[in-house]
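pipeline/complex-builder :: batch 7 item 3
reading input block
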Amino acid sequence: MAKNGAELALSVRDLIYRSVVLMDSQKVTEWLEGLCAPDFEYLITAYSHEIRREQEWFHGRRDELLDVVKMMPYHNTDHSPFTRHVSVYTVDVDESCLTADAVSSLVVYQNMFDGINSHLDSGDTRLFCSGKYYDRVSLEGDQPRLLQRNVRLDTRRLDKGSHFLL
Amino acid sequence: MARSAKQWNRKPDLNAVEYVDSRIYTDEEIFERELERIWKKTWVLACHESEIPAAYDFRTMSIAREPIVICRGEDERVRAFLNVCPHRANLIVRAPAGSFAVGEPSGNPKRMTCMFHGWQFNMKGECTEITRMKQGYQERLGKDDVGLRELRCEVGYGGFVWVTLDDEAMSLQDFVGSSLDFLMTELESEPLEVFHYHKSIIDSNYKLWHDTNSEFYHDYMHYHNRVTSMMQPGYFDRKYTAFANGHASVGSMEVKYDAYHGFQSRDLSFPGMPRNGWKMVDMFPGYTYNLRGSSLRIDTMTPISANKVMIEFRGLGLKKDTPEERRQRIRDHNSIWGPFGRNLHEDLLGITGQGVAMQPHQEVRYVLHGRHEDNTIHDEIGMRHYYEEWSRRMGISPIDPAKKLATAAAE
């Protein structure tokens, strides 16, 4: 890591945690426009042991994700919000100090609103999925920004699924 | 106007199979009867051959609670067996998929090994090893006496592996009949390959998922389908066709994917399928071939109880796809059919709601299947046809499940 790498690593951690705060608050547009690079790429991936292949369950660039957010009100969805618990495990700043790669653990809880039967389920908190964030961060410019996020899931059975990004 | 309890509980003034009694979705005795009379007697779409591409590859699944192992032999042939050791009925293979080419802690390579006592079996189901056989069984029992139970297994209709528990079932060809004829160019011109798999376990009856797949009136639930299909030319001209054995198909149209903000026209397709075309076949008792231009989606179901079902979702393209073509198919597939896609979550919300509103010990509901629109897209002929076959096999009436029917097939 370069001489000022420790400071840069701290700024990367701060970026990742701020992104989680915005996502948990469902301020996805703020996250995309405020903390993600214009060519930000987002993926949700997993490995299927059943068919023994890598899976790419979601893929989009920043503009496409903004479209997803824009179109959400047109869709029927389970409105139970997510709470993400993220711990940044490692941050590796490259020698040029232009990019950094980070690995974070991810646990997503769903706080039931609709659920299956809202009379019974509303207010409960359930585990939705676990995995890791693999992030690439740009260190150029006035602030670090996410260049790429791969949400790598360990959980592969998602039952009703979700319209919300992880 | 709203109704009193007496009015609500009165049977609809509709003809037979234009409505069904909700107990067919909730009663555990009916569910057990379905396992015995339908799932144990029919062909089940188990997996795709591309999931077991090499000799010694295997895949496990279950039918009517019977554990099944499917494997490819040294002769490249795909076979299916009960995944049950003939010694003390242990489950032989525990993983969802893999290869027997590698040895296991209790057994040799190229064998299925029951870890319990080390009995081994080859890819033809023959027992090849009984540990300390002579010492324990002398001349009373040998390897020839304890082969695995082989199940009828065929590969077809796009490379899918079909299995039946019933040695006396009609042939697969007779079972499918002509229901897949209008898809055969797309399914058989080029080898297919599975690229997507995920599963859901939903608290609802398996037939409710199949009902949803069997009708398009629920496009009101899908904003995507309303703008790309319902509001486009040709939608209301699509017609259902009913086939023998309870299957039904719906004809194609040109879907306008770019009518949905942010989506694009699907230039990639399947051999013989017009660009942006859409064909669908719903097969009794619970599989759907759903081909939307660039990707083929296959739904299969494993009923777990009257109010619980596992649905497996597969996405397929062509084996010869270039990396760019495969990436495009994956994106197109998952944009609406993935676990984070626009449509699938909505469909699953639909049957989840039905699962809440129709449970054991609730009041009986009457579920309407009575739309008649000359077999066009919002006609409910798909469901009516399904329950005619269901009734024939079950020997009971879907509008009065307590009433047993005196039909030859039922007995």
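note: The interface with chain A takes residues 50-51, 59, 95-98, 194-203, 221, 223-224, 260-262, 314, 330-331, 334, 338-342, 344-346, 348-349, 352, 355-356 of chain B (CB under 8 Å).
queue -> next item
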